[in-house]
Every structure is written in C-alpha cells, then in structure tokens.
User: Fold these one by one.
Assistant:
Number 1:
Amino acid sequence: MAKLFLQTHDAVFADRPRTAAGKYTAYDCTDITWSPYGAYWRQARKMCAAELFSARRLESLEHIRHEEMRALLHDLHGDGAAGRAVQLRDHLSMAALGVISRMVLGKKYVEKQQAGAAGAAVAATTTTPEEFKWMLEELFVLNGVLNIGDFIPWLDWLDLQGYIRRMKKVNRLIHRFLDRVLDEHDERRRLEGDGFVARDMVDALLQLADDPNLDVQLTRNGVKGITQDLVTGGADTSTVTVEWAMSEVLKNPAILAKATAELDAVVGRGRLVTEDDIPHLPYVDAIMKETMRMHPVVPLLVPRLSREDASVAGYDVPAGTRVLVSTWAIGRDPSVWDSPEEFRPERFVGSGIDVKGRDFQLLPFGSGRRMCPGYSLGLKVIQLALANLLHAFSWSLTDGVAAGELSMEEVFGLTTPRKIPLLAVVKPRLPDHLYAGP
C-alpha cells in the first residue's frame, strides 16, 4: 500500500494538508516540508537538489563533518579517561548541531557560554545548547501531534489542547534566532560586494532569492522556513538514530563485538574512520539499517493529501483525503520481516535493501516526490558518527544494568527518541593522540 501511494500514485498524493503546525511553525507553509504541491515547492526542491545537497557541495563541506567528529571524540575521551558514564545524547546533539550549523549557517550559533567579557560577547551572537535543544524538541513534538482543530476546523479557535499557543511560542524564538542569522549574512554580502562568495547554505539561499528569473519569488520568510527545515531535519534525526543504534548494540554484546572486529580489520587502530571507509563497512551499515527499521526517526511519514479523485487497490479515494504511512508498523510487520522484534543486522548484509526510497519495506526518509531532500547528508552524518563511536571506544552499560534490562521505551512525536537517555561507560581503545580534537 505504501508503494501504491508513494510511487504508483505519487503525483496524485503529492500535496500536503494545511495544518496548524505548517501555519504556525513553518512560516505559513513556506518551508519544504509543509508547502503545498506546486511551483513554489518544485522550485524549493530543485534548489535543494542542485545547490544545497549536491554531491559537489557535500564533498566541499566534508572537512566540517570530520572536524566536528574529532571534537565529539575528544570530549568523550575526557570522560572516558576519567572513567565516567556519559549521557550520549548530549554529546551527539552538540556534534550534530556543530555539523549542521556550520554547513547551513556558516558558523556555530549554538555554543556553551562562559562567564566574563568573552562569554558575554559569545552570548550576544549565539544561543545556549539548552535553549536550542528545547526549540528543536518542541518543534518535533508539535509537528507530530494530532491537533483537534486540524480535523474539526470549527473547534480550531478554542485550541483545546494548547498546541497552537506552544507553536506560537517556539516560532517566536526561532524567528528571532533566524532573523539574527540572516542579518549577519546580509551584512557580510553588503561588505564584500561584488567579491562575495557563498560559504554556506544560507548564503546560497540568499543568492537564489535575489535571482529575478525565479518562477516564484523566494521571500525572507521562505528563506527562514527552508533554513529551519535544514537545521532541524539534520540535527535531531541523526542524534536520535545514533543513540538508538548504540542502545541496541549495548543490549546485544555479540553485535558490538562483530562491529568492532570489522572496524579493526578495515580501519585498524592507527587512525579514525573517514567517510571513504564507510563503503567498506557492510556490517556497520547493516546496524544502521536495522536501527532505522526498528526505530524509524519519523514513525508516521508527514501526511500526504490527494489532489484529485483516485482509485487505489480497488478503493475510491476522493480529492482532499489525507494519507498517513506508518513506517514503524511496516518495520515490525511479521509478514515482511522474520522475527521483527529481534535486532538482527545480519538480515541486511548482502540483502541489497537500501534506505533511499526504492525498497518500501524500509522507508526512513520516505519515498517519491515528497521524500526527505537531505537524506544524503543525514546518512553521511549518521554513518560517520556511528562508525567512529564503535571504533574509538569500548562501551558498556553502567554498574547494575544488565543488557537485557536496558529500557527501550520511546517518546512519540514527529520523531521517536528514547524516553530515558542512554547512559553508558566509555573507555578509549585507540592511541591517545587520535583524540586530540580538530
């Protein structure tokens, strides 16, 4: 059924419903996720493919991903050397925010702030990790809720669940943050004049917005909406996936040992994992895919909307019908997967099943026209982080927690993070000089 809606009848079901989330958290549906199917969306999608996520641009920014990965390993090494247990999510989210903010925004706008004059100067141009993480988490929760007013419009004004009030609050904070980002980019463009060269994705978007030949004019709010998609989509999703992957391998020590053996054989213990190593690590790749099967970042794909009457599998579906695809249910369907509740990466080794929207039993990024446009970047960040964590450290659960007792409860929103953040003991397993940081 997913294939029928997302591929066979993709063009008919390529629209989006107009929801409170799109209106209040996505600049009145001017981002990529919630914008209706039409000339504006096609133009935004084209910008992503040609300018923002092209192989050339991703390759040119590879050094950022490696620098932030070294910073992550350096921070974890300090905790490991002291024998401390770490809350992995905090470290992962800072690394992901570092990668995404530098690639998209041009610098780290999220910094741990210090006291004193220097700290005050940093605070003037950055947001604290706590503030930013709250904004991201709130956005993902509110984009995944079932808001009564979206389904019963005449009740919308009552805001019975309080969701619209929360949407307006988080939007004000993000609006202020992105205004500051765009103002700084505009100022640099003004100062550099004709010698201006785009350094990051916001620069590229602002240049495109100035193009008089665009089919649909890209407004400042449109730039902010697309930027918000890039930042939120890239940061939280990779953190959630890697935390689940590490949870599963800690729960299954034999899988952890097998992954470590593959990394030692391919990479050795004299260097860190690079992106060039990833194609030669089929078992680590299988761990990622199995994680995405059992813990899809987006359990219900963003709703589709039919643009016209259609007939699907013998059912008459009228125009204006919403379609929800449950990737969570497909990933745990016993008619599709053997022993679906077991974490078995081996099922993907040599299977040929991919995550790029062509195999409908595994759709972490969706499929068809409305598939996540940034999946290629997401895969790079997830694979590099997971491989380096498994390679650079020995991992174990804290004293008193047996592998079989590790809680795997999840929180439902647009994404499904762990309910209880993973706490693990980390010990360095490579030479000390490799943890020196960027």
Note: Residues 2-435 form a domain with the Cytochrome p450 fold (CATH 1.10.630.10).
Number 2:
Amino acid sequence: MFRKIPATDAKYIKLKEKYQYTYNDFQKFAQHLTDQAGRSLKSSGKASSYARYLIKLLVLIEEEDGDIINELVSNESVIRLQDLGRHKNFEVYNKDEARFPSATIRCFVEYVNYKYNEKTEQLIDIEFNNKLNEVKENRSYYGSSELIQGPRPRKEKEMSRYGASYPRNPTESIEAKRRNNWTCEVDVSHVTFQSASDNNPYVEAHHLIPMAAQDFYENTIDFADNIVALCPNCHRKIHHAIEEEKRDMLMILFNKHKAMYPSYEIEIDFDTLCAYYS
C-alpha cells in the first residue's frame, strides 16, 4: 500500500484541493513549531514538507480503507493516521521517506490538539467575561490576588465543563479594563453601554496572546499587560473576522503591548501573533 506519491498524482491534487484551508493552516502551525524550536530557518522547507506529506498520508489511507476523511481536524483523522503509523510496513516506508511521515503524524496530532484547545478557550472566554461582568469591580471578591509584575511559571491546567484549560485570574482582567479606562483598545470611539454591575462602560477582556497558546510558553500569559479591553463587536471580530481584518486589529493592539512582553520573559513577534489567529 505504501508507494511514492508525486504532487502531480490525481488523488493528491484532489485531496489537497478538498483540504486546502487545513493544508495552509497546518503548514503555518508546523512553521511556528519549527521557529519556536530554533532549530531551523524559515527557508528550510520543513513545514511545507509536513503539509505535503499530510496529503500523501491521506491518499494512502483512502487507498487502504476505500474512503476519505470528511472532517480533517477531528479525532477520527488522528486515529486513522496513527493506525497508519502502526501498519507493519510503515517503518520501511518511513525510513525510505527520511522519516517525514512519522514526523508529520506527530506534528498533525499536536495541531489537532491545539485547534481543539482553541475552541475550548473561546467557549471559556465567553463564560469568563459573562461572570466577570456579573459582579462589581471588587478585588476582595476574587481573593485579593496580587497582580503579576514579572515572569511567573504558568499554572497547571484545571478541568472545566469544556475540558482541561489554564485558569484565568479575574483580577488581571479587571486591571486591564481599568488601565484602559473601560474603553475599546482598538478604537476609543466605539461606544457600548453602561454596565449595571459597576456603572462603567461595558467592555470585555481578551488575551492578546490567546490562552490557547499557553502550551508554547513556560511562563504564564495570564497577566494584565497581555489582556486587552474590547467592545463586544471588536471581541467577536478578533475571533471570527476574515484574516485581513484580524491582522489590522492585531497590528493596533500589538503595537500598544509589544514593549511589555520582555519584562515577563515572553518572546512574541507580530507574525507569530498572527499565526495564533490563523
């Protein structure tokens, strides 16, 4: 079943077209991991090789099983790729292909885990902001947590009804709103309404480096300098807008916050930030 699959192969072309968005997104993710590891230059081509091998592996799965994977970012795809990696003839094929197939499977499993984490964090984000705006701005309500002023190790994940995730400190989010005087950081002219909980203009807290990316950092990213205040429209926009509109917003916000990250020992550049928002 294991054969050489060129980029001109009809099945390869068909599946690449079918999964074009995930192909591009996975390539960006693989490039980010390569950059984070510091073992390869952007010109190495490793990330693009992973994306191509992903399609080749999907062709092999289709030929072996007789059907294709409908939802690529799914537990089903992970299971079927891992099953392929356990095939009795896979090791010979993997060796002949310079071990790119096994590396691609490992990277794709991490990609799917990240995408699920991203979805989980967005659900938690909505619930967190709802609870944050149900009570008056009173730090004693949250246990008088001390604000983070420098590098601090990330906390362990905790279970929520949406799954395991990193905890968020409400005090840090309240402080971020206060520092920006309860206005939208994208544009202070974005008028919302007066919140019944504290009589301040209603804004929502959003982690600029998203909490879904916490796995990439040993130090916590849950601190006020990484949290932006957004009007509800901008908050939805930064999650759901087309890439060009997201990029414009991120540029505004990154320019305001980028000088603060070194004091927390967090390394981030604009391209990496954009990659987190796909």
Note: Residues 133-276 form one domain.
Number 3:
Amino acid sequence: MRWFILILMFFGAMISFADKSIVGLAAVPIMEEFNLSYVEWGLVGSCYYWLYPVTGPFGASWADRIGAKKILGFLMISWSILQFGVLAIAALPFLLLYRVLLGAFGGPYSPIAYSHLDKWFAKEKGLANSAIVGGGTIGAMVIAPVLVSLITIFGWKVAFASLGVASLIWFFLFQFFTKESPIAVYKKEEKKQIEKLEKFNLKEFVSLMIRPTPLFTVLAYASVYMLIIWFTIWCPIYLVEVVQLSAAQMGYSIATIGIASIVIYTGVSMISDYLFKKNQDWRISRIYVVTISMAIGALLLASIIIFPNPIWVVSALCLSKGLTYAILVIAPTIMINEKRESGGLMSSMLTSFGSLAGIVAPVLTGYIISLAAGDKIAGYNFSVLFMAALVLTFGILFGIFVKPALSRNKVAKKNISNEVDLVN
C-alpha cells in the first residue's frame, strides 16, 4: 500500500508541476497570441503564486485535521476543472485569473504530500521526499518534449486541457485504492494530533518559526525556489534566445536536465539517509550534505556565463539543478521534525515562503533582463548570476545557522522507532 501511495504522490507532483510549468513551454505562442511584453510575461509567471502562500498553510492544516485523502482529492478535481477551463481563455485578464486560481489550488499539494508520506515511511524519508521532488521535476522538465509536441500539433489550449484528464484519473485512483494511515492503531495517534492542533497557539508557532533552524531552512528553500521559477519560466526562452537552440532541441534539453537532476538529487538524498542511519547526526547527514550540494550547484550555474557552449550549458544546468534541489528533499524532514504533530503545517511553511519567492522571481527576472538596454544575452546572464549568488549565500547561511539540538536527535530516534513499530 505504501509503495502504491508513493507512486501516486509521485504522479500527483508530476501533474502539479506540469500544470504550472507548461505555460513556460507555451511562452512563444501565448506571447504572440496576446501580444505580451517581457514584463507582462513575467506577470503571467508571477501571478501563479499570489494566493499560494495563503492556501498552502490553510490546506495543509486542514489535511492535518480531517485527513490527506479528502483535501488531495478536492485539489485534483479543482485542477481538472481549471485546465479544462483554459479552452475558454480569450484575453490576458482571463489567463491571469486562470493562473491565480491554479496556484491557489496547487499550493497545498506538496506540504500535504510530504506530511502524508511521513506517516508511511519511517526510515526512508529522504527517498520518499525525493519521489515528490522527482515527480515535480518530471512534470516541469522531463515530459517537456511531449508537452511541446502537444502544443505544436494541437495548440496550447488543448495541451493544457490534457493535464485536466490526468488530474481526473489520479483522483479516482487515490480515492478508491488508498488508505489515510498505515494501520488502524495510527488513528489513536491522529486523534492526539488533532487535539493538539485544536490548541494551536499562534504566538508559540511564530516563536518556533523565528528560531535559527526553521528560519534558515525556510530561507534556503526559498532561494532555491526562486531558481525553480527561473528553470520553469525563463530557462526554455534562455536556451532558445541565448544558447540558440531550436524549439525541438530546447524540449529535449529541458528533458535531459530534468532526468539528470532527478538522478543527482535522489542520490544526494540516499547519501543523506545512509549517513543518518549510520550516525544519527543531523548536522553531518542533513545540513552539511545540503550545504555542500547547494554551493557546488550555485557555482556550476554561474559557470554557464563564462562557458556558453551549448553542451557545457546543458551539462552544467543538469548538475546545478540536481545539486541545488537537494534542499527540496531534505528541508521537509527538518521542518516536520520541529513539530511532528503539525507536519503538514510545518512543511507548508516551506512551500508558502517559496511561493513568495515565486511571486517576485518572474517579475524580477524580467526586470533584470530589461535593464540590459536591449542586450538580451547580457540581461539573461545577469539573471543567472543573481540566482547563483542567491543560492550560494543562503546555502552557506543554512550550513552555519541550522543546528538541530542534540536532544532533538534523541527524540527523532524515538520517533523513528515508534514509526517502525506502527508500520510493522
């Protein structure tokens, strides 16, 4: 059952990220159809995240209370309706409204999925989280050639609607073939968690979030989320306009970057899990692994400015994406461990603050490009350098300030032991 749930969470993340990223693959026909400027296109990319920070925590906390199945099912039905509704879009305001609503109903998915898998996987948390991030990567990049083909042959609206069909199929599989928790015994634990959630104290929660561990975990996550937006919204255009790839070459390059990055950050997460099982040390197994990965990934990203050869650009982007995305896999585990009875809410802090970055990133990138006074190559290079510096800075801060207490390690061991007993 848990492996089937893991597979569905993987495909759910794939649909979610395909929903949000397909607009980048359809950038050229959409911009031509609505006669959009770069700044207006940045607005289209940004508006997806306007309600994301609000609906993420709200939906995740409700899932903590009434169960993941109900909320995830509702989200999938909403995605399906919105994607079918694309067929009626005839002007920019309607496109913006569609993106805003899609982001609103997309916000809760990842935190709920992280928290839901945390119930089912006692020791392989890094691997389980990698499935969600991996699904997102495939949805955003790996299936790009398929989506580009659909856009080319049938038009961008039909391609969008096809994702609505995928959401509908996922809904029926998840609702009728999975369970809420590993075993009936877990219902007692859920009842205790609900009682604790009913006594939720906002002041206590804010006090928790400003501690160094959750604060700098969220900031490091948000910095990489800005890079996610760059990969989603601007990377396809960068490969075409700067690297001079054809549309087909761009699609296959995006897929290559996505596949390679999945292998890399899954490998990093497995190394982290292995080290944690071996020494139970959060600093070594989680923090240092992520910090080193983010630093190397940021430097590789910056290198494409110096070496603009297409082969090196695609290779560097493969490595950069895979290494920097390690924070996406490890951060939910760190946050959930801070307050386990509110796992969905804690992980939603990551996606919500990441979405704040998502609001700023597309517009900021468009503004940076426009500052180059007509020199698009210089503008894109400035944006790449900015993203690399951001990830490098917050990766180092993450390594310095995120220090889970030793006593918390003991609690983590006890939690793992209890979860193993429950799953067994």
Note: The CA atoms of residues 102 and 393 lie 31 Å apart.
